[in-house]
Design goal:
- Helix content is 33%, strand content 21%.
- The radius of gyration is 32 Å and the shape is elongated.
- The structure holds zinc ion (ZN).
- The site of zinc ion has 5 residues, from loops.
């Protein structure tokens, strides 16, 4: 295979970003209650039966009388001391009567037979600081998304669910960060590119030869690309296109030209209500309009949506719709400045997918900006909302979505009331049909080109072979 993105180029990771469940620490006082009741009963028996009768002799009561006032003064103190001792004794008995006795960071705890490290930590009343889920560049994707804590049992590493044996010594420290899954891709130093006559909504530039290619890793959640090795020499590139092939009922909703007054916020609310994740292709100079606009992008990011640049100026020097009409330097600046505007608003490294203004992406344009992006993202379903055909028409377009579709909509660039209304009506209906709404980055993880090739019988007129552009390893 002459192509770069074959099986070997994408060695690591599974088909989907592995969601690692974080163990919830549950307090489970069940066995404790019964232990306490039984202890209390036995103690009561002891006091009544063991009470010495001499205490009530006449001499004793006379003494009590003569020192009565002093004794009365100390009675509350005596009672308090007694109570403390009693509580201490009960606690001790509980720990003692529990089937499993252990120490957590030096503190004694009693545990039931069926127990876990997480239970022991709760029992000991220890608060641990969880780690975070971090991107390939080390930036935080989700606070508390890491392991809840790190534990050892008698010096051996333990999981939150590990059982604690009797007389064990459990040591607990703060949780650790978990790094997102990633895939590898080759990078090229490309002077210009030609098309390979492929077709599809997702476009990328590859080198003609993998010899001298560089190497980068891309986070499967963040979409952040980190260069590991630089390409060693310049070469011609090939612009290759493909669509996401999947049978799963997943759709990527995409919104262009925001952030925008009111509509962006309304769309975010609707997405929240429907548990939907989407991708926003934002325009840099819109973000710089003011703090409210930057706050909208931050809200998009914090809600788990994917934010990518749609350039800084919407290709202003390219008549507002075509980077191809601009110089190489101007193209690079419009893209990278757009990414920086996002990073300023979100405080995190920008996802390196990109949507070209007007969808215009010639091989030459692609070659110019290829070092700064992973993929140019087009669409497979245009709702034509920008033509304002009426909310009903936009809704009907949305309802024609099929598995793997990338849906084009706009939250900015004009009055988007119809888009909002259509979305509000269509999302619950699509959910009823079994669809979930994912980011483009997530949608990539559903791509199963081998299966589609079998299904279609393959069209090998380009000799290109499908599915080599984004190949997942076994999961
Ligand atoms: Zn646009």
């Amino acid at each position: 295979m002459r192509n770069s993105y074959n099986n070997n180029s994408f060695g690591s990771g599974g088909r989907r970003p592995r969601t690692r469940s974080t163990e919830r620490i549950s307090s489970r006082p069940s066995t404790r209650t019964s232990a306490r009741t039984s202890t209390r009963t036995s103690r009561r028996n002891y006091t009544t039966s063991g009470m010495p009768s001499q205490l009530f002799s006449p001499s004793a009561s006379a003494m009590t009388y003569s020192y009565g006032s002093n004794l009365r003064r100390f009675l509350p103190l005596i009672a308090a001391v007694f109570l403390v001792l009693l509580i201490g004794f009960i606690g001790f008995s509980c720990a003692n009567s529990a089937p499993v006795k252990a120490k957590v960071n030096g503190k004694r705890v009693g545990l039931p037979e069926e127990n876990t490290v997480a239970m022991a930590i709760t029992e000991a009343g220890i608060n641990t600081t969880p780690g975070s889920l971090v991107a390939v560049d080390g930036s935080i994707i989700k606070e508390n998304g890491g392991t809840p804590f790190t534990a050892t049992i008698n010096g051996e590493p333990a999981e939150p669910r590990s059982p604690v044996p009797n007389r064990a010594n459990v040591e607990v420290t703060a949780g650790q960060n978990i790094q997102e899954d990633y895939y590898e891709r080759l990078t090229y130093n490309i002077t210009d590119a030609t098309s390979d006559d492929s077709w599809g909504s997702i476009r990328e530039v590859k080198g003609v030869s993998d010899e001298g290619a560089g190497r980068a890793i891309v986070g499967r959640i963040s979409g952040v690309m980190v260069e590991k090795e630089k390409p060693t020499f310049e070469q011609q590139g090939v612009l290759h296109m493909f669509d996401i092939e999947t049978k799963e009922r997943v759709i990527a909703l995409t919104f262009d030209d925001g952030p925008w007054d009111e509509t962006t916020e309304q769309i975010l609310d609707i997405l929240d209500e429907n548990d939907a994740k989407a991708t926003f292709f934002v325009v840099g100079n819109r973000i710089d309009e003011g703090p409210e606009m930057a706050a909208l992008v931050k809200r998009e990011y914090d809600s788990g949506h994917q934010i990518c640049t749609h350039t800084y100026s919407h290709a202003f020097e390219g008549a507002g719709y075509d980077l191809g009409l601009m110089t190489h330097d101007a193209r690079v600046e419009d893209v990278t400045k757009g990414q920086k505007a996002i990073e300023k608003a979100t405080g995190s490294k920008c996802n390196q997918m990109f949507r070209a203004p007007g969808g215009n992406y010639s091989p030459t344009t692609a070659a110019s900006i290829s070092p700064y992006i992973t993929y140019e993202i087009g669409w497979t379903l245009d709702t034509l909302d920008w033509q304002k055909p009426g909310a009903k028409a936009v809704e009907e377009a949305l309802l024609t979505a099929s598995p793997g579709d990338i849906v084009l909509m706009h939250d900015g660039g004009g009055d988007r009331e119809q888009t909002v209304e259509a979305l509000r009506a269509a999302l619950p209906k699509l959910k009823d049909k079994g669809y979930t709404f994912v980011t483009v980055e997530e949608l990539m993880n559903y791509h199963q080109p081998e299966k589609s090739e079998e299904a279609s019988g393959g069209s090998d007129d380009t000799g290109d072979g499908k599915g080599e552009e984004y190949e997942e390893a076994n999961s």
